[in-house]
Amino acid sequence: MSTHQDKGKRAFVIAALLSFLGALAHLLTIFAGAHRYRTTGAGEAMAVTVPVLRDYYL
User: Fold this and answer.
1) Per-residue pLDDT tens for 29-53?
2) Number of domains the chain contains
3) CA distances from 10 to 23, 37, 42, 53 (A)
4) What's the domain range around 41?
């Protein structure tokens, strides 16, 4: 029978693993480079707004 403390430890371990996986995904994205980042479709909205913003800065 699990105690309340065991459930808390299990939840902490799961949260730590998910946090680690999120950090690992960020590092892999950084090392993969911009081309791979754009290949996944990420940053698409940012890429679309660049020409619009360029009119304001030039």
Assistant:
1) 788 776 776 677 766 776 666 666 6
2) 1
3) 20, 33, 33, 48
4) 4-57
